[in-house]
Every structure is written in structure tokens, then in C-alpha cells.
Request: fold
Amino acid sequence: MTAETNITVFRRVIEEGFNRGNLAALDECYTPSFAEHQFDMPATLAGLKGTIAYLRSTFAPFSLTIEDIAADGDKVWARMIGRGTDSAGLMGRLPSGKTFAITVFDTCRFEHGKIVEHWGVPDRFHQMMQLGLLPQPAE
Reply:
């Protein structure tokens, strides 16, 4: 498969899965042996679908916007902005209604036009700061 095909599949995951909640669309984008390598994420496609459902319900409305994307060989890299609102409450707290916008870096490895591995780095520290879950720096 070409780098452009892999980018198209990656974009479909973001738009259909994360932004629209169409989790069934992900079945065509991942291999059965898919492996997740992001910290604190379930290692399977079923786990990824559960994580997406959690993000969409806990941070509604939740979205990812691709800012930069590149492909080389069997890999796609993307820099995105993740946005959401604390709409369900975190860490035993009531929902605050506070919003966040964080940077997310993703790398996916493809085989035959499907994702077989994923590594992701969301800026959770910045997210927690914006949601008031960490002490704010003195000005």
C-alpha cells in the first residue's frame, strides 16, 4: 500500500471513530492482531473502541484535529489537537464544564493498508492543568 493510502486510513480513524463515534468503521482500519503501545491504553481494538467511547462521553464534545501528518514507508505520524469539556467529572469530582485543548502525537505502523501498531503521546499534564486538577503556576 502507498503512504497516501495509509494517511487516508489514519484520517478515517480520526474522523469516523474519534470525531463521529462510528466505532464500527474502525474494523476496516485495523488488523485482528492490532497492538496498542500507548501508556494506560488497552492493547486491543476492542480496548481502543472502549477508550474512544470513554473520551466521547467524559469529555463531550470531544474531537481531534489533525494539524500535521506525514507518512514514510509503513508508518504515519500525526500531530493533532485534542479538545473536550469536562462533562462527566474526573477523579471523583463533579463535572466542571472546563474545556481543554492539548497536543497529541501519534505514530501508526501499517500492513496492507491497515493499522497493526499504534504509539500515542497526549499531553495529559497540560490537560489536567487546564481542567484544574493540578496546582496552577504562580504568575
Notes: Residues 3-19 form the longest helix (17 residues). The chain has a mean pLDDT of 95. The chain is about 25% helix and 35% strand.
